[in-house]
Amino acid sequence: MEHWQPLRTQRLEVLASNAAFWSTVGSFALPLIMIGALVVWLGGKHLPLPSFLGWSLLAWIVVASLIIEVSGFPLGIPVAICLVIGARRQKLRRVTLEEASA
C-alpha cells in the first residue's frame, strides 16, 4: 500500500511504477475526449453509435479498476453502460423505422 503514501515518502521504484501506470493504461483524458468527440460527431450526422464503443470503454475501465483498486475508474462504468444501452436503442429504433417504412 506504499502507493497511497505521500510522494515524498515513497521509494523511487514505487514512484516509477506510478508514473508508468498513469502514462499508459491509466491515462484516460485523451481517450475519453476522443470518445466524446465521436459521440457528438455521430449524433450531429444522425448516425448510429457503434456498440463496440461502449463495450471497449467498459473493458478498459474494468481493467484499469482492477489494476488500481481505489480510484475514480469505476465512475466510468455507468457511462460505458449508457453508451451500450444508447447504441442498442438506436439500433432498435432504426429497425423499427425500417419496418414501418417497408
What does this structure look like?
The chain is mainly α. It is 69% helix and 0% strand. The chain has 4 helices and no strands. The chain has helices at 12-22, 29-44, 51-67, 76-101. α3 packs antiparallel against α4 (76-101). The termini are far apart. 4% of the residues are buried.
Properties at a glance:
102 residues, mainly alpha, 4 helices, 0% strand, elongated
Secondary-structure map:
Blueprint: H1 12-22, H2 29-44, H3 51-67, H4 76-101
Question: Tally the helices: what do you get?
Answer: 4
Helix fraction, binned, reads: 55-70%
| Largest sheet report | none
Low-confidence stretches: none
- The average pLDDT score comes to 84
**What is the 3D form?**
elongated
Quote the distance from N terminus to C terminus: 62 Å
Strand composition percent: under 5%
Cα-based radius of gyration, to the nearest Å: 19 Å
Q: What would you say about this model in short?
A:
With 102 residues, the protein is mainly alpha-helical. The protein has helices spanning 12-22, 29-44, 51-67, 76-101.
